[in-house]
Amino acid sequence: MKRKPAAKKQPEASRRKSWSPRSQNSLLEQYKLEGEQEGCRKAIKHVQAKIGEAEKSKARQIETLSHSPGDYHSNRVLTEALSEIEDGKRKVAALEERIAALQSQIDALASPTASQARERTKKQALLAELAAVRLQEDRLLDSTLEKLREALRIRAALTARMLEIASSLDFASGSDFDSDRYDALLRSLPDEMAPASEGWLDWFLGKEKGDESCVLPDEGVHTLPETLASASVFGPGAQTGLTKDQKAQLLAQVRPPEPRLEDFAGPTLSVEERMKRDMPEATQPGEGLLRGWGMGGR
Q1: Residues 182, 152: contact at Cβ < 8 Å?
Q2: Handedness of CA 33, 34, 39, 44 (dihedral sign)
């Protein structure tokens, strides 16, 4: 009986089943739409207040006209009140219709279809897998860089030995032994890159866990760089489970920068410029000062 081939082992990153269900752009768009809804609600309250005032005016004019049917002023004010009431009702209806349309957009953002959710999950898994494979390549790059560094060190040692022999042959100082190019290359090579790549992947996959908390202002929405694990959108109020770095980045967004001394200082002037400013009659450095002491002039 033939054995079934072993299933190919997937990178750990690609085996996670759930990632951030919403993107940062989606959440920010929802906040924007909700803000527009709030603006419409405030406008409705304002228009309804105007309608209420017009209704009161309407009642007063009807009362007046019941006693003086031909009163021109009351007829004119009543007509204006009725027009304002009708106009206000049309505005309220339009605003309520806009709120409903915005809510439809919000619902579509907040509740994607099953096929949309599956497609997002599929792409997220692929993105995680590619990131894990790239980390393997970063480790290979580190190995290649170390081999290159070792080859350059060997070449540098050979060059040093050549210089010793050349010195014993009384070569002129500063003779060209073709070492500058390779010495510069060795100095330019970075240290290990993979450890930073590993840290980035842990962050991107949401493996970094924090226990820091902070309270954000009651207004505004704040963001951090988006990851597979989190859309990194933070609304008003308390935020928990933050890393120290996340907390520092969020607080930097809400705290005003510390004032600097140079923000309050005027332009820096030289001694000569200050003397010319304060003693415009001076034509040479120190002349105005001497005159002030009774020593200048003829």
Answers
A1: yes
A2: positive
